[in-house]
Design a protein that fits this description.
This protein has 168 residues and is mainly α. The protein is 71% helix and 0% strand.
């Protein structure tokens, strides 16, 4: 029963989680690696993860934490893998959007990824990230405003001081 339930979860969530992880990890090979490790950890803790209010967000958060750990431990050593910034065509991802997401501050990016790419509500995101739902709303608002300016800035947006405060 446990294996069948996990297999169904994996098949249902793997593409969505991969798209979400690519928002932080520029190298698709590393994104595959950290996501595989996150799913392995989920399998090992399936009794806990299966009852989590947002198991997909749990997977993405673990994968992003693994990426951060890899970056910290390897930042002084050159990467052995070449950067591969092009996602698989079947994932239907916009390269400009991915690059814009990667420019956001970490917390804004995490919130935007979980709210938009994973389609979780503020409560689920707040619980997963350990922050208040109102804080999720603030980070989402700021992140989306910054994305809007990065992806398609208009002259009015660039001159609006309210929009400039979100670009930090």
């Amino acid at each position: 029963m446990k294996r069948t339930e996990f297999d169904a979860f994996y098949r249902r969530s793997k593409d969505k989680c991969f798209r979400a992880v690519l928002a932080s990890v520029a190298n698709t090979a590393e994104a595959d690696d950290v996501l595989a490790e996150a799913y392995t950890r989920a399998w090992q803790r399936w009794d806990h993860v299966s009852t989590h209010p947002a198991p997909e967000a749990w997977i993405v958060l673990v994968a992003m934490n693994l990426h951060r750990d890899n970056w910290r431990s390897n930042r002084f050593w050159p990467r052995l893998r070449p950067a591969n910034n092009v996602p698989a065509p079947e994932l239907d991802l916009d390269i400009d959007l991915l690059q814009a997401l990667r420019q956001l501050p970490e917390r804004q990016r995490d919130v935007v990824v979980m709210r938009i790419l994973l389609d979780h509500d503020n409560e689920q995101v707040a619980q997963t990230l350990g922050i208040a739902p109102a804080t999720v709303s603030v980070h989402l608002h700021r992140g989306l405003a910054a994305l809007r300016l990065q992806i398609s800035p208009t002259t009015d947006d660039l001159n609006d001081p309210r929009e400039q405060e979100y670009i930090r």
